[in-house]
Specification:
The complex is a heterodimer. Chain A is of the alpha+beta class. In chain A, 35% of the residues lie in helices and 14% in strands. Chain A has ten helices and seven strands. In chain A, strand 6 and strand 7 form a beta hairpin. In chain A, helix 3 packs parallel to helix 7, helix 7 runs antiparallel to helix 8 and helix 7 crosses helix 10. Chain B is an all-alpha fold. In chain B, helix 1 crosses helix 3. The chains are: A alpha+beta, B mainly alpha. Chains A and B meet through helix 8 and helix 10 of A and helix 1 and helix 3 of B.
């Protein structure tokens, strides 16, 4: 029997909020983002959520769909709906809730800063262009981690973040790993010192939730393992 | 604790883990061998008395454990009890010294029994 209506439990309010049930027509090729947009436009204009591109480029529409962190623009209703069950939508975990499905990402980006997730060019400009062979070890390592678009799904999925609010998290550490492999960067010592602390890479438990749920199929776990090796090497050599 | 020390703790934990893997394997194999052979405590102590190899093995075992265990405990306290800072480091240092003292005392007792 075809189901013609869709029912959802959607989180309303801040951390002390509660679920509210909505019902709307089931449509072809409908995504979860389409659903919350339709609810906001036709049923409850006060429903708060965040999106921008709608096509899986910006990463701003991430939410928890039936317990799993996902990009809602790339999640079709037909793929997550189970007969007789309501779809449950929640805001991302491990981040303060602003309202309903929108979270405050400030902490997430503060940790990118704390992990020295920016390119450090050094005091003087280089004399010439840096030559980085595409098949060099460093470039290939960076390539594997470079496609992150900061959606926060890995941060939301991370168990270590959930029990240690200081932990830098998979995204920031993954970003650091791309820069550790950037041969042009002149801020490696400060970066390694920033990520080798108790809040840094060594706190990762290799649960691999970040890798499991990353919509870009990246492996922050692998990047963090690289950082562990690099920081231990630097510590043994007395570089940090 | 600064980054250099945190990284060194991790190196120490990994290296002592390698030592412990061998030490625990030898320890268990020896226990099984001795028990299956039907030796009682007195007979076992008779064989370990004055055996420098036994003393060396168990000294390495104890030293590795007294380094390895407090580092792991420190992580557990940080994550599960939110215990941070200097008091935690000092407490773990005390745990390490207690493990070392009790362990070496036991190893020496087996050697000099």
């Amino acid at each position: 029997m075809q189901i013609h209506r869709l029912e959802l439990d959607i989180w309303r309010g801040d951390r002390d909020g509660a679920f509210q049930t909505f019902s709307l027509p089931l449509r072809d090729s409908q995504t979860i983002l389409d659903v919350v947009t339709e609810i906001q436009r036709t049923q409850d204009a006060s429903l708060a959520y965040r999106f921008a591109c709608r096509v899986g480029m910006c990463g701003s529409c991430a939410m928890i769909v039936d317990g799993i962190p996902r990009w809602t623009c790339r999640t079709r209703v037909i793929d997550v709906q189970r007969k007789g069950k309501r779809i449950k939508l929640e805001p991302l975990r491990n981040l303060p809730i602003v309202k309903d499905l929108a979270v405050d990402m400030a902490v997430f980006f503060d940790k990118w800063r704390d992990a020295k997730g920016h390119f450090e060019p050094g005091d003087t400009p280089p004399a010439d262009f840096a030559l980085v062979p595409p098949d060099s070890r460093e470039r290939r390592a960076a390539d594997l981690a470079i496609e992150c678009i900061n959606c926060g799904i890995c941060y939301s999925a991370c168990d270590v973040v959930s029990w240690d609010e200081d932990y830098l998290g998979p995204a920031a550490l993954n970003r650091s790993w791309t820069l550790v492999n950037d041969v042009r960067d002149r801020g490696q010592q400060a970066r390694l010192e920033a990520i080798a602390t108790d809040a840094g890479c060594h706190s990762c438990h290799n649960h691999m939730s970040c890798t499991e749920f990353c919509p870009k199929n990246l492996s922050p776990t692998q990047s963090i393992a690289g950082l562990k090796r690099e920081t231990m090497r630097a510590a043994l050599k007395g570089e940090i | 604790m600064n980054a250099a020390w945190t990284a060194r703790l991790l190196v120490a934990q990994r290296l002592t883990a390698i030592l412990l893997a061998f030490a625990v394997a030898i320890h268990l194999a020896t226990i099984i061998y001795a028990v299956r052979g039907g030796l009682n405590a007195g007979e076992i102590l008779g064989r370990t008395r004055g055996n420098a190899l036994f003393l060396a093995l168990y000294s390495v075992f104890v030293i590795a454990a007294s380094i390895h265990a407090p580092i792991g405990l420190r992580n557990i306290f940080r994550e599960w009890a939110n215990w941070r800072g200097r008091s935690l480091d000092i407490a773990m240092l005390i745990v390490s010294l207690i493990l070392l003292a009790l362990g070496l005392r036991a190893a020496l007792a087996v050697y000099a029994a």
